[in-house]
Amino acid sequence: MSEATERQAAASEGRELRADCARCFGICCVAPAFAASADFAIDKPAGQPCPNLRADSRCGVHRDLRQRGFAGCTVFDCFGAGQHLAQGTFGGRDWRDDPATTRVMFDTFAVMRPLHELLWYLTEALALTPPGSLRDDLAAALAQTGQLTDGSPEELLALDVDAHRDRVNRLLSRAGEQARAGRAGVDRRGAVLIGADLRRAGLSGANLRGACLIGADLREVDLGAADLTGADLRGADLRGTDLRRCLFLHQSQVDAARGDHRTVLPPGLRRPAHWSLTITPARPSRGRAAARRRR
Q1: N or C: which end of the chain has fewer CB within 10 A?
Q2: 154: exposed, middle or buried (Cβ count in 10 Å: 0-12, 13-18, 19+)
């Protein structure tokens, strides 16, 4: 890998990959569409501001989003794309003050956000991968993706982001396989496991890339070395689950799931406020329970 690529990769690895809403203009509250469902209380067409969006680009019901039926908002993560677009690509121009840029800004967000997501995954993959050709390829992909995010609106809109994502995903899949070497478990890539009881499925080292785990029962499961890239964990029961050594788990997946005080998270991820903090008392043994009944 060339010295220039190494410098570009280092710069991309140091980018902001967490949302900073104070430096954005509420783009994610306007650009996407959402439909009334368990995740959203109302229908909202693409390009129309959410009625909860205030003039200062803050959410008027942020503290009560779940209670008001907007759980989907609490688990959305732009990976820093919002502030990059607002402050970098468009130089701090608010879509409210510059109507001519509104449509272009929102269309560009649909490209910038997946690029920033790829930056997050590539950064994680680099941390997992030892020196060698695969690490060099990951660093080159990180540098290239970072360069793409710095393009003009016209360059971004001309980009085939799906093709770029496919190329990067092949590298990420190889990085996951290498990280799971020696612990590789079952292959459930893309599996539909909605509501499944997986407590005895033996998922340590499993490949769960893109698996649909909505409402799945994963209580007290060891997910060590399991690849969770893109896994849908909405409503998944993670009470008592050990997640500390799983691969490619990000905060929005954790926020979408259910957990408790016993759930073990990887470093850098925070425990969601809506998770249960109740300490469940230990269940008495049959002998102790029978003795109490006799008394």
Answers
A1: C
A2: exposed
Closest Cα to residue 77, out of 18, 158, 162?
18
Q: What is the pLDDT of residues 173-223, one digit of tens each?
A: 999 999 998 887 899 999 999 999 999 999 999 999 999 999 999 999 999
- For residue 104, what is the DSSP state? H
Owner of token pair 């956000």: 113
Q: Which two tokens stand for residue 59?
A: 């959410």
Q: What is the pTM of this model?
A: 0.88
CA 104 vs. chain centroid, Å, equals 25
Burial class (CB in 10 A: 0-12, 13-18, 19+), 166: exposed
Instruction: Give me 294's structure tokens.
Output: 């006799």
Neighbours of 90 (CB within 10 A): 19
Give residue for tokens 């209380």: 41
3-state class (DSSP) for residue 227: strand
